[in-house]
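Hi all, posting the design record for the shared folder.

TITLE: backbone redesign
STEP: 1 of 1
STRUCTURE INPUT:
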């Protein structure tokens, strides 16, 4: 695989590859190791000790390392008994295929044990069915997440604020929808000033947990002054101690003094990205622009507030 591959495309490909297959490829092909280290930024499937739940049609499959268990005739009681014999994993992959019915989806989440799920700190979830009314439902079982990568389909509006109100310790969060964004459609994923306020409220007075925030295919409703206030609130000089002691493969590759914020393939409803960038520049000590050509996919701003650096990326407006 080449570094020239689009990151988003690679991530979508990896979602469809069996975790056990990826681990076996790593064991038999040493030339993969360098690429796999790079790919750990996009998926947790390469990590040993990760548990994977997959729902396809009426089947439920559990994978842990090289072992896998497939159940075709199961119910909430069966799932409950299985979880009683499995030690909770720090990292959980959850994949619901598009062929899965709403009844199977509801049966699965009704059978999950909240105490078991509360031990999960990192969740990579892909929900590829449209029938679910509430895409936030799966996240209610995981209040102690520090890392969330969530891709889903939805027909009703989902407010990102609900996620940050329920999961308050997130330091890494990636949210994206599957459907192609159409400006004429009604809002499906909304990120507004209340979302900014919720994220800011989750930070402590003297420290901040937030390290990386990535939002894709959302309708964005906040004004430049709202974003500047948010930046000022989360730009604390000291990262939370949990960031320094964290053993996550992903976050070891990041500078904990840097906060990454990305909006890509989003529709900014109240203002243009230029206005947001200009508002940030006015408050920054120093500023560097990369790729000022408007035809580029990303405009990037690197600014500094106090001792914390910010690397901001805004995708093209739709």
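Okay, here is what came back for every position:
SEQUENCE:
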């Amino acid at each position: 695989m080449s570094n020239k591959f689009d990151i988003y495309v690679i991530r979508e490909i990896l979602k469809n590859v069996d975790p056990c297959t990826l681990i076996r490829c790593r064991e038999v092909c040493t030339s993969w190791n360098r690429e796999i280290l790079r790919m750990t930024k996009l998926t947790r499937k390469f990590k040993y000790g990760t548990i994977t739940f997959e729902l396809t049609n009426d089947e439920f499959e559990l994978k842990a390392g090289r072992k896998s268990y497939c159940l075709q005739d199961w119910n909430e009681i069966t799932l409950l008994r299985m979880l009683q014999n499995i030690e909770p994993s720090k990292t959980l992959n959850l994949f619901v295929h598009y062929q899965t019915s709403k009844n199977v989806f509801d049966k699965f989440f009704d059978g999950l044990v909240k105490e078991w799920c509360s031990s999960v700190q990192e969740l990579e979830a892909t929900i590829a069915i449209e029938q679910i009314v509430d895409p936030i439902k799966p996240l209610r079982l995981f209040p102690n997440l520090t890392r969330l990568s969530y891709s889903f389909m939805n027909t009703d509006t989902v407010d990102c604020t609900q996620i940050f109100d329920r999961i308050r310790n997130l330091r890494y969060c990636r949210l994206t929808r599957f459907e192609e964004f159409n400006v004429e459609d009604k809002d499906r994923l909304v990120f507004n000033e209340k979302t900014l306020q919720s994220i800011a409220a989750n930070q402590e007075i003297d420290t901040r947990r937030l390290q990386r925030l990535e939002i894709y295919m959302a309708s964005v409703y906040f004004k430049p002054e709202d974003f500047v206030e948010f930046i000022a609130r989360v730009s604390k000089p000291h990262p939370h101690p949990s960031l320094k002691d964290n053993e996550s493969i992903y976050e070891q590759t990041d500078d904990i003094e840097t906060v990454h914020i990305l909006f890509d393939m989003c529709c900014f409803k109240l203002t243009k990205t230029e206005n947001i960038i200009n508002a940030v520049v006015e408050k920054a000590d120093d500023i560097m622009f990369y790729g000022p050509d408007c035809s580029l996919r990303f405009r990037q701003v690197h600014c500094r507030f106090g001792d914390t650096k910010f690397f901001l990326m805004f995708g093209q407006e739709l």
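COMMENT: The chain has a mean pLDDT of 74.
Let me know if anyone wants the other runs.
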